[in-house]
Design brief:
The structure is a homodimer of 216-residue chains.
Chain A: H1 14-29, H2 39-49, H3 52-56, E1 58-61, H4 64-73, E2 78-80, H5 83-88, H6 91-95, E3 101-103, H7 108-117, H8 121-132, E4 137-140, H9 144-155, E5 163-166, H10 174-182, E6 188-191, H11 198-214
Parallel strand pairs in A: 2-3, 2-4, 4-5, 5-6
Antiparallel strand pairs in A: 1-6
Helix pairs in contact in A: 1-2, 2-11, 4-11, 7-8, 8-9, 9-10
Chain lengths: 216, 216
């Protein structure tokens, strides 16, 4: 097949584009109060959203980043609320340590149980996750009900996540669910307000898994 | 397994949450210049991003929405640049008309060809897509190089997409690639500036597929 005008080899490679983007972000963000360990995560979140307001609203608690790195290096699972996160996360870096990423929201038993209890599949998927494994990273980018259920399970001592990345997006309960998360004294990464979403959560997980890989 | 405090059945169902969210969006957005046909798409984009600035920056050209509806109803493919879009799109509504969503960026032949030509997999995935089928909806949320290549293929008469949804996010070439798209006189949906991403593109595709399904 003829593709028309022969294109030239790229003069700028993808890695260079990422490097240039990170430079622009650092320059335009200016002063901030993130630690040198936190900043790469914020930088990737801004890279994935082009949203400095969102970047500035990121909140870290406890030894969130170290806890995340330890969890990945121990091969413990990442649990996400929606398939988009699973699709976006760099699985190779998780699998290198024996881990992986799991989403239970479309499992037949989850769908059936949600129907039976007249509740959301997102809630039941969190219940299934805590049965499947202890610890791990819980990454929520879409469903406030998943985050609220996880918070309840933590409060009742039934869930013991290594790290919670809680960034559901939306107009009903999303900001409130994150307000509730911030009241917990466990390792978490979240943001203040309505914004969030799968791409943001993916960039946070990938940032931490890069750090985990670089420890080798 | 004991899940602690028995939870109450939800008093608010997911559909009600969506309805309430749409009400809040309409109220807070206030005056705008979108047509009644365009507005549901903008509304879903704001719903997926909680970002009114992004919502206001959406641009439609030609008979973009009708072209998208026709394409889906004719069972023509949706082509996306990244797997996250494939994961997020409601496939059942596309398949109902015999269509589906395709992502070529991780295909072995695409990877090999990109290496051989020293270019990006995103570019080669667009070339593979135009070989695979005529027409269809091209949905780009991540890679400016994919959008720029698609624009080149359109200009040279090699690609004839029914609709282009062009919303790559980022700091290098993303805004510029959308500026180039806006110079074409073909049906497109895009936004002005650096923002965008997979979740935004997914909400646009889903909004159009809902319209397509409602025509029945």
């Amino acid at each position: 097949m003829d593709f028309g005008t022969e294109f030239k080899p790229l003069t700028v490679q993808p890695q260079e584009i990422e490097g240039k983007s990170f430079e622009i972000i650092t320059e335009e963000l200016g002063e901030h109060s993130f630690t040198p360990e936190q900043y790469p995560i914020v930088q990737r979140i801004i890279h994935a959203s082009a949203d400095f307001e969102l970047g500035r609203s990121i909140v870290f608690n406890g030894d969130a980043i170290e806890a995340g790195i330890r969890s990945i290096r121990a091969g413990r699972p990442v649990v996400a609320d929606v398939q988009m996160i699973q699709a976006g996360v760099s699985k190779e870096r998780l699998e290198r340590f024996g881990g992986g990423i799991h989403v239970y929201i479309s499992d037949p038993d989850v769908i059936e149980e949600a129907k039976r209890l007249n509740t959301t599949r997102a809630i039941i998927s969190m219940r299934k996750a805590i049965r499947a494994a202890e610890g791990g990273i819980y990454a929520i980018g879409n469903a406030p009900t998943a985050l609220l259920e996880l918070i309840r399970l933590v409060k009742e001592g039934l869930a013991k996540p290594d790290l919670v990345i809680g960034m559901p997006v939306g107009f009903v309960s999303a900001a409130e669910s994150k307000d509730e998360l911030r009241k917990l004294d466990i390792p978490f990464i979240t943001n203040i307000g309505r914004k969030g979403g799968s791409t943001i959560v993916v960039s946070a997980i990938n940032a931490i898994s890069i750090m985990a890989a670089n420890r080798e």
